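ARCHIVE RECORD
Type: protein–small molecule complex
Small molecule: 1-deoxynojirimycin
Source of inputs: curated submission
Record status: active
Notes field left blank by submitter.
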Amino acid sequence: MSTPVESAPDTTAQDAHWWRQAAVYQIYPRSFSDSNGDGLGDLKGITSKVQYLKDLGVDAVWLSPFYPSALADGGYDVDDYRNVDPRLGTLEDFDEMAAALHAVGIKVIVDIVPNHTSNRHAWFQEALASPKGSAARRRYIFRDGLGENGELPPNEWTSIFGGPAWERVTEPDGTPGQWYFHLFAKEQPDLDWDNPEVHEDFLRTLRFWSDRGADGFRVDVAHALKKDMDAEVESLELLHRADLFRNGEHPLWDRDEVHTIYAEWRRLFNEYNPPRTAVAEAWVHADRRARYASPEGLGQAFNFDLLKADFDAEQFRTIISKNLAEAAATGASSTWVFSNHDVVRHATRYGLPKGSGREEGAGADGKDWLLEGGDPAQVDAERGLRRAKAATLLMLALPGSAYLYQGEELGLQEVGQIADEDRQDPTFFRNKGVEVGRDGCRVPLPWEPQGSSFGFGSNGSHLPQPAWFADYAVSVQAADAGSTLSFYRRALKLRHELQAAEALGWQDSVDDEVLHFVRPGGWHVVANFGTAPVVLPEGEVLLASAEVEGGKLPGEATAWVRVTG
Ligand code: NOJ
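STRUCTURE (tokenized, with ligand):
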């Protein structure tokens, strides 16, 4: 017996709700397109690819940070929130890019990094030059050290990127002084969100970009802003496990009071027409995600459940049902994501051998494989891509917004092998032997099959591209109807035509390894997680991630079928 279609109001027609069903494409600006041949992608490079984005069929782009930065953490160490890194362009370039994107109907989401500034930010420089207890220091988390001469850190807390979470400063008079707290790299001092000045400054930043045409914001580590620095921690192992806590009382993560900040932001967003949107990056317990996505808060939160799951029908079904029910109860819309700039690309994760993180590749996070040398020969790239396309086609059929990461539309694999001297990610340097870092998914895109940087720019690329990138080049794939790029283009186009309402009804399926649901208009979605072919419902096959023969869908594939009558 099939369950009835779960209905929610049709909001797609209203511009204020554009984000509810949007396909959002994440651009990592330094690695997208380089217009001036300095090896770094830039804003003009993005503007030059607006037609590409339009042809791809995305509704919005989210830009990872493009602000002035020493790149201690890929730009998540921001020197100045209301400016553009001169290597990436100017504010005028931003305006031009936003206008060009808007002209073709693509919205612009910018990344806001409120947990920490960079150590080069004017505020932090002022704090270093100011005495203990000064107003300038109170914007950050400065403490006296322990030990006879304050030579020991205030506590034993560790940074997410490895090593201590405290760094000692030299006082203006040259003596060893206080310590400041940094949840991430030491170049990323944490702000003190108990300080009203910090609130005011971020409101100013949000207004600045909203006035300049930003349609929304992605909020970096949204769950970390409020902290109880005096709390006792039961065990250091639990210090970074926000996902295990449900009571809002962890000293560093997901504290209940963080939502007062987002209520304040929401009031500002709603002053605009249409209201500005926001999506929280909050790696919290799944039961607490809805708080970030509330209409009185940010409105949406990333849901990383599918990203973390195995390629497994039951896991997918449970995650999808739970998240849709939650969204319906809270009035938010779900988000779905498989890849971003922090994780191994899903076409690679799904092709990893057993024992590379989790069972049977699938949801394996790939960290072990990277640590062991990231040998591409160990990856079943064909299978990885087959599963990735199946998973993506399933995701694009779900109600809610789909977040795509640059390069996944090319079926791009992770670059596992990067020489140590070429690596940039602080997790590699701070956590040697434990992590290799995230550079492998940040290698600049191949636009052409030849050239010094495969068409990324005219003069090399800041992270080396392997020779096999030629096979994934945009120009090659654009000319091939059977390519991954053509598949994404068709899927995104059809998604627009088909996605009329936020409703989904599960259908019984004959096989445990098969998921089957129907969307309004008789749009059936069948995803085969097993390896044996399955019979599809009778109707018009709109799109399939692998060739359908004799009405049968092969293993590890998804099909969209329109059933009429
Ligand atoms: C999350 C971002 O996605 C990641 O790239 C960054 O390193 C941390 N936040 C710190 O800002």
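CURATOR ANNOTATION: The domain at 122-181 is CATH 3.90.400.10 (Oligo-1,6-glucosidase; domain 2).
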